[in-house]
Design brief:
By secondary structure, the protein is of the alpha/beta class. It is built from eight helices and six strands; from the N terminus they run H-H-E-H-E-H-E-H-H-E-H-E-H-E.
Length: about 200
């Protein structure tokens, strides 16, 4: 999945240009901050692509930290395993768009969202605390597509509509933010389907 407005696009465009930290450095940092920090967010790219992500998270939990997982939902089996083993305290899942527009939004022709739906259904079972979130872009999202997202996650306890911010390092081009008043209209539509919907980034 190659989202054209990914906020971590540098990991896709120029991965060799990013700073690297060894596992030893990461855990030395976390050990020094025990009792100061409360939790660790596991993010990406898609962190569930990592083969030994469960081992890594277990080491974090062994230090007493809570763990938040950011995911796009493409690895439902790994998500279920981590949650069922009690390794994750909170999951934030990105919903890119309505089913009809998922392929266009992620930049993959004919993209199959069956695994996305499987992850959504699992989270809706309330096995772990969670949120769904959508970063809205004027060229890709509308009231119609928000309605589609609402139907996709119907019954969810919380959804966040996030403002798009051009980092200057986008994979796609000519993308723009949705005006605040339109985002508010989107929020009202989403409230027909979820318990809570808030706007982030404005």
């Amino acid at each position: 999945m190659r989202c054209p407005f990914c906020h971590n696009s540098r990991l896709v465009i120029n991965p060799s240009g990013e700073a690297e930290f060894s596992e030893e450095e990461i855990f030395a940092y976390l050990k020094k901050r025990q009792g100061i920090l409360e939790g660790v967010a596991i993010t990406g790219g898609e962190p569930l692509m990592q083969k030994d992500i469960d081992v890594f998270i277990q080491k974090i939990r062994d230090l007493g930290y809570a763990v938040k997982l950011d995911t796009n939902g493409t690895y439902p089996d790994k998500l279920k395993d981590l949650v069922n083993r009690g390794l994750v305290d909170y999951v934030a899942m990105d919903i890119k768009n309505s089913p009809e527009l998922y392929s266009e939004t992620v930049g993959i022709s004919g993209y199959d969202i069956s695994k996305i739906k499987e992850s959504i259904d699992f989270l809706l079972e309330n096995n772990v605390d969670y949120e769904f979130r959508t970063t809205v872009v004027r060229e890709l999202h509308s009231i119609f597509s928000i309605e589609g997202i609402g139907k996709l996650i119907k019954g969810a306890k919380r959804h966040y509509i996030q403002a798009f911010i051009d980092s200057g390092e986008l994979i796609g081009f000519d993308l723009n933010a949705v005006p605040k008043d339109e985002m508010e209209s989107m929020r009202k539509v989403m409230l027909k389907y979820v318990d809570s919907c808030e706007i982030r980034g404005i």
